[in-house]
Design brief:
By secondary structure, the protein is mostly helical. It is built from 20 helices and six strands. It has helices spanning about 15-20, 25-30, 30-50, 55-75, 85-95, 100, 110-145, 165-190, 210-215, 225-230, 235-260, 290-310, 325-350, 355-360, 370-375, 380-400, 410-415, 420-425, 430-435, 445-455; strands at about 150-155, 160-165, 195, 220, 270, 350. The longest helix is centred in the first third of the chain and has 37 residues, at about 110-145. The radius of gyration is 31 Å and the shape is elongated.
Length: about 450
């Protein structure tokens, strides 16, 4: 086992079990690009400020680029015995450059180094997830455009409530995704602050130029307190919180897809490429993707709880507990990306059973509110109209019919205000098309909703 970089203080070799327990190379190796980019910026600054010789600084930068290329090409493999990705890169650099490589860590601690790496890594992940969200939102917009007139029941308490359209329903989720995009962009702003230069906790006595490093790495600013710089993981928690809300939205959509695929609803049918079968029941076509998304949502919630509990009781500054941040936030990121990668093409290829949606909307008296509004528009107080309509619904249930089929004579027995035009007023298409208020289900309103979401995702 290679000597640890910090071995000078110790007289015994680290127990292998402790080494394995302490090591993070198995999961933080994924940050190698960010680690090397951060080291290149740090080495450049050390040379430019004269903290180390400019020639040695250039050799270090060249050596780091060589390591990056060798890892990318597969020529250089990660050493599972290395303590972490930071030590691995520095050890390889020292093996290749000798004493020059040892100068890289001047004016730097692993505490501020890891704080830098994880900010850079998660910053990149946010920029990868936002386009995936935009793609999903655009998919919903396209399906909505094709279904502006696809009437379906809207639900409250999972009971048929009022008529809407599939377009209107899907644009509710598109608006949720627009907020998710905004939340992630906001998280990025607070994450994009450069901690390198904080040192272990109390900065450094070297005349470093933190703002040069910040500019080289594309940060908006530097952290303002060295203790906070190394011990802050708010950005991990905030990112995981945003992912948890995103997963909640995907889970709600997934729950509806699961119901809509069932024979009890049969509103949609998923493409065979995005469904699975049963090992014993040959008729089955299961919406496993959406069921897995519901399950994986709880997993991301668990990652968020891990981060919150990890941070809640540790004093300033860095504590080894904080090593647990990576597996939790990496898992949350991986899980959310996997769900987005699968749900988008699944929705894009699903078949909409418009007739089944229309037939479901025709049952359940979801036009009852419109029947009451018909009377209100003729001068009756709403509460009186509400009571009369409720009585009509009870009558329809007794006679096993619907408001559309109930004879006008029955209407007039209850209230002489009713005329033949009531049937046009309670027609499902009329109920939808007359709801033109901003945000409503009328096609002209939904078109504006689509335009709004597309404006968000075009930014």
């Amino acid at each position: 086992m290679a000597d640890k970089m910090w071995a000078g203080r110790f007289s015994k070799e680290l127990d292998k079990r402790v080494n394995d327990f302490n090591s993070s190379i198995s999961f933080d190796a994924r940050m190698y690009r960010q680690d090397i980019r951060g080291s290149i910026a740090h080495a450049t600054m050390l040379g430019d400020t004269g903290i180390i010789d400019k020639g040695e600084s250039e050799k270090i930068v060249e050596g780091l680029n060589g390591i990056l290329n060798d890892i990318d090409s597969g020529k250089l493999l990660f050493d599972p015995n290395a303590e972490d990705i930071h030590m691995f890169v520095e050890q390889v650099l020292t093996e290749r450059l000798g004493d020059t490589g040892k100068r890289l860590h001047t004016a730097r601690s692993r505490n501020d180094q890891v704080a830098l790496d994880i900010r850079m890594y998660l910053r990149d992940e946010i920029m990868a997830i936002i386009p995936m969200l935009k793609n999903l939102a655009e998919t919903l917009c396209r399906i909505a455009e094709e279904n502006l007139d696809t009437v379906m029941p809207g639900y409250t308490h999972l009971q048929r409530a009022q008529p809407i359209t599939l377009a209107h329903h899907l644009m509710a989720y598109a608006n949720m995704l627009a907020r998710d995009i905004d939340r992630l962009a906001d998280t990025y702003k607070r994450m994009n602050v450069m901690p390198l230069g904080s040192g272990a906790l109390a900065s450094t006595t070297y005349p470093i130029d933190r703002r040069q490093v910040s500019a080289l790495l594309g940060f908006d600013d530097i952290t303002q307190n060295s203790l906070d710089g190394v011990s802050d993981r708010d950005f991990c928690i905030e990112f995981c919180s945003a992912l948890s809300i995103l997963m909640m939205h995907l889970s709600r959509l997934s729950e509806e897809i699961v119901m809509w695929c069932s024979w009890e609803f049969k509103f949609i049918e998923l493409d065979d490429a995005y469904s699975t079968g049963s090992s014993i029941m040959p008729q089955k076509k299961n919406p496993d993707i959406t069921e897995l998304i519901r399950g994986k949502t709880g997993r991301v919630y668990g990652d968020l709880n891990t981060l919150l509990v990890m941070m809640k009781g540790i004093p300033l500054a860095y504590n080894k507990d904080m090593q647990e941040d990576k597996e939790a936030i990496f898992d949350a990121v991986d899980t959310a990306k996997l769900c987005l990668e699968t749900v988008t093409p699944m929705l894009a290829t699903m078949r909409v059973n418009r007739d089944n949606m229309r037939n479901a909307a025709a049952r359940g008296f979801i036009n009852a509110t419109d029947c009451a509004d018909y009377l209100v528009k003729k001068g009756m107080p709403f509460r009186d109209a509400y009571k009369i309509t409720g009585t009509l619904v009870a009558l329809c249930i007794e006679k096993n019919t619907t408001l559309e089929k109930l004879p006008i004579e029955e209407y007039k027995k209850l209230c002489g205000t009713f005329e033949e035009d009531v049937y046009e007023a309670i027609k499902l298409e009329t109920c939808v098309n007359m709801r033109k208020a901003e945000g409503g289900p009328a096609p002209e309103s939904v078109k504006k909703q689509i335009e709004f979401v597309r404006n968000v995702i075009s930014l």
